[in-house]
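Re: weekly structure request thread

Next one in the queue (207 aa):
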Amino acid sequence: MGINFFNKVFPQKWDFIGMLRSQAELTAQGVQTLLAWLMEPSTENYDLLLQLAGQADTVRMEMEEKLLEAFVTPFDRQELYYISVQMDRIVECAKSTLLSIVEYKVEPREYFIKMAESLSEGTSIFSGAMISIIDNKPIESRTRILEIRKAHAEMEEYYRKGMSELFQTADAMEALKQHEIYSLLEDAAFYLGSTVDIFHRIVVRIG
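Done, posted below.
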């Protein structure tokens, strides 16, 4: 049963998919801002990322409140909740990556940037995928799922390459600092993978 048909039969009080779409857009913008900062650090992008992360968190909390009150949701409320939480963790990892690099005085590394590029690609595709699910286009949604999984796999590959390079670093303290950054980006990759897994289940159920 498609979402549009479901909404006609069981009208909803709140636009949960619209909320997810807003959160997805803010998440994608936040990761894109991290990437821009890694390539050319600036106060403007530093402040913007913190702002976007805050806005994304506000959308998530608002949706959680509405889920407690809602009688009807477009699909399983647990999946709505979990996909929102996983997205929020992506942008929180992006924020933590930024703050940690600044606090630890670590220079942006090649594989930091490559991982952020793939994360940005994956979150941007996911933001577009929310439109395809709203328009009830399961084939388009599945294509985007494959593209997101590809971005996730690239992050894993860059993580391994970055760690391989790190293991050759003679400066133990510098290696420890860089490892922390790689771990945060690896966590973001994990949450991207979790997000697309939940999204895939949703697409299968409503397709």
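The domain at 3-206 is CATH 1.20.58.220 (Methane Monooxygenase Hydroxylase; Chain G, domain 1). The chain is about 85% helix and 0% strand.
Next request, please.
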